[in-house]
Design brief:
8-stranded mixed beta sheet; 1253 residues; 38 helices
């Protein structure tokens, strides 16, 4: 195990080998058919496992894990039990509709593994079986099979390379980096720093050049792509509840507790005060009726406080947010992504294609030219700008003159649709197209030489524009594409350079092609008779010249000359011998480019005379290319021309977007498969690493996450040939040393695990994340990771991770989530899919993303731009902020209505809203109009505060409770109850509910104790039984509802009307019955004593009793219970209070839409305007459309009463605006504190978010 402890993981298969083979070292024989069949039966087919989709029922159950839904269903049961079937049906319908829509959406977006299996489907391959080559189905391949691969093939399994010829593969499926990687049977010098070894081929990668033969060491789920498939297997998501749902559930629990308190308190208070509904009272001594009606009121109040529409409104908000994101080029595949993005505290992002353009671009061209009177060559440093991917629209400028201000002006002027714009300005000439006398003559000549020679050498790459769009694309090598685009900025185009190419004719038969071994190429061109090419004068006798392009470390040692300038300023090719100091300058410039994350490419020219050309021609043909190359490298005239600086530039908006993330308290972490130095340089350019911070302290290689003790699987090693074993055993061991800052921690950890007493504790530390799962014999090849605490420590301080494998990304994302962060992950390749699925919000690239990544994601960026992620976060925060407003508004109006009902009980006044009115108000005011908040603009501070706290969050902040909710639940009951009291008093002269109900006491009206008198009879026990309606009422009505008008006395006496008898002369607007109930027209024309007499109940109280004890109740001369002046007056007052509530709440919504004064936002939300008009129409319908008004118990209001009701509603809105002044002051102070907190969090100085103020 000592040796094993120094090895890299068998995730790369290089340590899965021991010293036993099964068929000797003769690779020509391969496996026998019997042995292959046995291994296939033992290991299974070479294919990825399927994934089990989550059932629709389990998703539906997840949707039902909503406390508000449960409370709503309970409310529906209560409503049904109380006889309100309509309300019960509406509440159940809301629950079923919202749950069904959400469940269908979640069910339809599953199984990224299916896309991976589809992508891995391959044609049969050539394998050696029983001494012969045969076409074998990929799923039939087994460990030990010898397989041949050629350019264009997809590697069928993980293989160790036995032989190769110029073999290169693209491992983007595993690393996410699109660069070609050279492969051979010999291990590479840099394999210690590589995630995947150069002497291995990996399943799912593609062969881009050359050919090779390898022996399979892993198949199916045991391959590297199998590890990805394993992580993509569906897990039980029924326990996963998004942050907003968690907050709503917690809020629901609080509301549930409040409902219980309300039921108990309201029932007790109502019973203790003997509260009666004037329009439906109980008998005076009927305690059972009183208790039941009290409990009913308590239940109604409890039901009324539940925000039934919250899930529906949240669903609409999330879906509207999804649509808004689509407008901003972000397509939501799972609706919860909107919420997760709003709560995101860490964004883990890939580098290539997300932070950068994903297209190689030439940024710099450095040359040397010796002046006539100088012994050392002067440096020529030219840079290209603007850098917009493959767009040729740009120029070439002297680096010293290209200031940040000039770059900004160019960015502003740049137009993607233009092929070429003029960016030169006074003091900043474009040296590729000089303007007047401002351009330095030498710089212009150098620029021409750089561009022409690069253009000639990159003949195999073409630049063109798509016919159906403004997008530019290239065919050929990505590095050459950068030079070809740079040449186009200087006016060199394939379709316009025919004369140039004809004058400098390429000698095809003498070309030296590029190979992974050479790392360079050369083209030979004819020189015109005047000895001039690309503005350079070649030495006398030169008939041709060679252009060499390749890795600086391969060409630089052979350089022997530099350019020189004549006295006339003409460039002379190989005009001076290169000194060691000049060679050192080139080396230093190469290092400087690497430090800036630029990939360097050196171009040299070599003048050739006729003798040298004859020598080259004698070695023409592909077989002698190496000899021709050595001849060129050995020339004493090999002249340095250009050191190109090429890179994948950051997108222009990324630095500002990252800065915006920091301001919002969001930490940005780069996870890339690229090398560490490049990642650090890009991170600094993108502001991911602060300028004043040592990048080494904020960056790491992903190997630091893994332990140094992989397990050797003997069962696999015995299946390999001795040759494969020897090749793998010759691989260099991984260097597990960390950066200097982490050495001491590493040593402590190694000492801890090497100690026999403490080593047994490791499993308990590492079994908390999915990457720490127990290894089975078939999963021992997977990487072994550090304990969760150590991963968390690294993840908390490192912002840049290099050389990442797919499981490394999963480890980091899972660790961040484990530490309490809401984590978003971006990616485009198959290698990113497991982390995308593991993250709270997986974000895939729409342009460069694979189907696997898209299917595993929650959000797809259609423009592959990091700035779009920030826009999506802003949208998510806007949705949450508007959800906060909705919840605050809803709880305000619910609690205020509940307070109104409680006030009515305490002060014994009629209920301001009741029955079906509550349901209609719920739908037309509480549920539908607040949907307008989904389209409300975000507040200015939404991206200047840290992410919200998830645990214990009940959506509404403390500031909102104190300065929005509390004032409203006080102000609204005051306004509504004042409107109710004024309305009832102006119609009846009374406002106390008991007075309006009336009394059975003898002469109660005459004595001024009540508005109505009620008769009854004594039963055999002496208990007085009240009639269902009064026989006499006296009211004092003010004309037109004017409270300042003189009161008019209205006296009404009962008549024998029977059931549903019409009332002649009844006026719905005033409640007047004319002379229909005048005493002279009733049985009481001779006085009440003709029909009634006084009697005493068992308590000795004198009451009105009927003389005719045997009469039927329905024939008694009563007043109608709903149309007597007291009852109808109470109904008119209650109609005024309903109007005040209805209109007041829609105006209140206007004040809740934004934190700024509502007068500035009257017409900024057309959806609100539409709902406002809709509410006005509904209010008019409820009050003035007779069938509806009668059904819900409202009366039409005369202009004065309507004016008063609307006036109290407007007063409520004005009070809200006054309170909002204080609220804004508190929010400003709170946001100033939070802005500083956000910046601290984004810089990694705090791990766990603190509670919101």
């Amino acid at each position: 195990m000592a040796d094993a402890s120094e090895r890299s993981s068998l995730a790369k298969c290089s340590d899965a080998v021991a010293d036993h083979g099964t068929f000797g070292s003769d690779e020509a024989q391969g496996l026998s058919d019997e042995e292959a069949a046995r291994r296939l039966a033992e290991d299974g087919p070479n294919e990825l496992d399927g994934t089990a989709s989550e059932s629709f029922l389990s998703i539906l159950i997840t949707q039902m894990k909503n406390v508000i839904f449960l409370l709503t269903l309970c409310a529906a049961c209560v409503s049904y039990a109380m006889g309100d079937g309509v309300k019960a049906a509406v509440l159940v319908g809301i629950v079923v509709f919202v749950c069904g829509i959400n469940a269908i959406g979640e069910y339809s977006a599953q199984d990224a593994g299916a896309e991976l299996r589809k992508q891995m489907a391959r044609a049969p391959v050539t394998a050696v079986r029983a001494g012969r080559e045969a076409e074998i189905e990929v799923r039939q391949l087994v460990v030990g099979d010898i397989v041949k691969v050629h350019m264009g093939d997809m590697v069928p399994a993980d293989m160790v390379i036995l032989h190769s010829v110029d073999l290169q593969t693209n491992e983007a499926v595993l690393t996410g980096e699109p660069h070609e990687k050279a492969k051979s049977s010999k291990p590479g010098k840099k394999d210690d720093d590589e995630s995947f070894k150069s002497n291995m081929l990996y399943s799912g990668t593609s062969v881009v050049s050359g050919s090779g033969k390898g022996e399979i060491v892993a198949t199916g789920m045991h391959t590297q792509v199998g590890l990805i498939a394993k992580r993509l297997k569906s897990t039980d998501t029924t326990a996963n509840i998004n942050p907003l749902q968690q907050s709503i559930n917690y809020l629901g629990q609080v509301i549930g507790g409040i409902c219980v308190v309300i039921i108990v308190v309201a029932t007790a208070v109502s019973f203790a005060t003997g509260y009666q509904n004037p329009m439906d009272p109980c008998a005076d001594d009927d305690d059972v009726c009183l208790l039941m009606s009290s409990a009913s009121r308590g239940l109604i109040m409890a039901v009324s406080i539940i925000p039934h529409g919250l899930p529906f409104v949240v669903m609409v908000m999330l879906r509207v947010g999804s649509q808004e994101m689509a407008v901003r080029h972000a397509v939501v595949t799972r609706r919860t992504a909107v919420d997760y993005l709003g709560a995101t505290s860490v964004i883990c992002t890939d580098k290539t294609g997300t932070l950068t353009l994903g297209k190689m671009t030439a940024q710099a061209a450095i040359g040397l030219c010796r002046a006539p009177s100088s012994e050392e060559a002067a440096e020529s440093h030219l840079e290209f700008y603007p850098l917009k991917g493959l767009s040729p629209n740009g120029g070439m400028f002297e680096a010293s003159k290209l200031t940040p201000e000039a770059r900004k002006r160019m960015d502003t002027k740049f137009c993607m649709r233009e092929r070429r714009q003029t960016f030169a300005e006074p003091g900043l000439p474009d040296v590729s197209a000089p303007v007047g006398d401002e351009a330095d003559e030498l710089s212009a000549r150098m620029a021409r030489a750089h561009l022409v020679m690069g253009f000639l050498n990159c003949y195999g790459t073409k630049l063109a524009r798509a016919e159906d769009s403004d997008e530019w694309f290239t065919t050929g090598n990505m590095t050459e594409a950068a030079i070809k685009v740079a040449a186009a900025k200087g006016g060199l185009w394939d379709d316009e350079a025919a004369d140039l190419q004809a004058n400098l004719e390429r000698q095809l038969d003498l070309e030296v092609p590029f190979t992974s071994g050479r790392k360079m190429m050369a083209t030979i061109h004819a020189l015109p008779s005047d000895g001039l090419a690309a503005g350079m004068r070649f030495p006398a006798g030169t008939s041709h010249f060679a252009v060499l392009k390749g890795a600086p470390d391969r060409i630089l040692p052979h350089l022997s000359a530099v350019l020189a300038a004549s006295a006339e300023g003409e460039l002379q090719a190989a005009g001076a011998e290169m000194s060691e100091e000049e060679r050192g300058v080139v080396k230093q410039k190469n290092s400087d480019l690497a430090a800036r994350a630029l990939r360097s490419l050196l171009v040299a020219i070599c003048p050739l005379d006729s003798g040298e050309m004859d020598h080259l021609r004698s070695r023409a043909g592909a077989g002698s290319a190496e000899e021709r190359l050595q001849a060129l490298l050995g020339s004493s005239k090999l002249c340095f021309l250009t050191l190109w600086g090429i890179f994948d530039p950051p997108r222009s908006q990324v630095p500002l977007s990252v800065q915006e993330c920091h301001g919002a308290g969001i930490r940005v972490v780069m996870i890339t498969g690229d090398q560490r130095e490049t990642a650090m340089a890009i991170a600094q350019q993108c502001n991911i690493i602060e300028k004043d911070v040592d990048p080494l302290t904020r960056s790491a290689v992903c190997k630091e996450l893994q332990t140094a003790a992989p397990v050797v699987d003997k069962s696999v090693s015995r299946s390999l040939s001795k040759q494969a074993t020897e090749i793998l055993d010759s691989s260099p061991m991984a260097d597990w040393k960390r950066t200097t800052s982490a050495d001491s921690e590493r040593k402590k950890r190694e000492a801890f695990y090497s100690n026999e007493e403490t080593a047994v504790r490791e499993p308990s530390l590492t079994r908390q994340l999915s990457i720490h799962e127990e290894k089975t014999p078939k999963s021992k090849h997977e990487p072994q990771y550090l304990p969760v605490e150590e991963i968390a420590e690294l993840a908390s301080r490192v912002n840049v991770w290099a050389r990442a494998q797919p499981t490394d990304k999963v480890a980091l994302v899972e660790s961040l989530i484990h530490e309490g962060h809401v984590t978003a992950m971006t990616g485009d390749g198959v290698n990113d899919a497991p982390a995308l699925k593991q993250a709270d919000a997986g974000i895939a690239m729409g342009i460069s993303g694979t189907a696997v990544a898209k299917n595993a994601s929650d959000l797809i960026l259609m423009d592959d731009d990091f700035a779009t992620i920030v826009a999506a976060v802003r949208e998510g925060r806007r949705i949450y902020s508007n959800t906060q407003k909705y919840v605050t508004f809803n709880l305000c109006v619910k609690a205020a209505e509940c307070n109104c009902l409680m006030a009515a009980i305490l002060f014994s006044v009629p209920m301001p809203i009741r029955g079906l009115q509550l349901l209609l108000n719920l739908v037309v005011t509480h549920i539908l109009p607040p949907l307008c908040l989904a389209w409300e603009r975000p507040e200015d501070y939404v991206m200047k505060v840290p992410p919200r706290k998830i645990k214990g969050d009940i959506v509404v902040s403390r500031v909102m409770w104190l300065f929005r909710w509390l004032p409203f639940v006080i102000c609204m009951p005051l306004c509504v109850m004042a409107c109710l009291a004024l309305g009832v008093w102006s119609a009846t002269g009374y406002f106390n509910g008991n007075d309006l109900i009336g009394s059975s006491r003898f002469n109660a009206v005459e004595d001024g104790l009540a508005a109505c008198e009620i008769a009854g009879m004594l039963n055999s026990d002496g208990k007085f039984i009240d009639d269902a309606a009064p026989f006499h009422c006296v009211c004092f009505s003010r004309a037109g509802g004017n409270p300042f008008a003189e009161p008019t006395k209205i006296e009404q006496w009962g008549r024998n009307l029977g059931d549903d008898a019409p009332i002649d002369g009844f006026n719905r607007w005033t409640g007047s019955t004319g002379d229909f109930f005048e005493k002279a027209n009733t049985p009481y024309k001779d006085g009440p004593s003709s029909l009634l007499e006084s009697c005493s109940d068992r308590r000795g109280i004198k009451r009105w009793c009927w003389k005719d004890k045997a009469g039927e109740d329905r024939l008694r001369p009563w007043l109608p219970s709903s149309h007597n002046c007291a009852a109808y007056g109470a109904q008119m007052g209650q109609s005024m209070s309903y109007v005040s509530i209805h209109f007041g709440e829609i105006l209140t919504l206007l004040t809740f839409r934004t934190d700024s004064p509502c007068v500035f936002n009257l017409c900024t939300n057309l959806v609100y305007t539409g709902f406002f008009l809709f509410n006005i129409c509904m209010l008019v319908t409820f009050v003035y459309f007779r069938p509806v008004a009668q059904a819900i118990g409202l009366t039409p209001l005369c202009p004065m009463r309507l004016f008063i009701a609307l006036g109290f509603a407007i007063l409520l809105a004005c009070l809200n605006e006054l309170v909002k002044v204080v609220y804004r002051m508190r929010m400003t102070a709170s946001n100033d504190i939070l802005a500083k907190e956000a910046l601290r969090r984004s810089l990694g100085r705090q791990k766990i978010p603190e509670p919101n103020p």
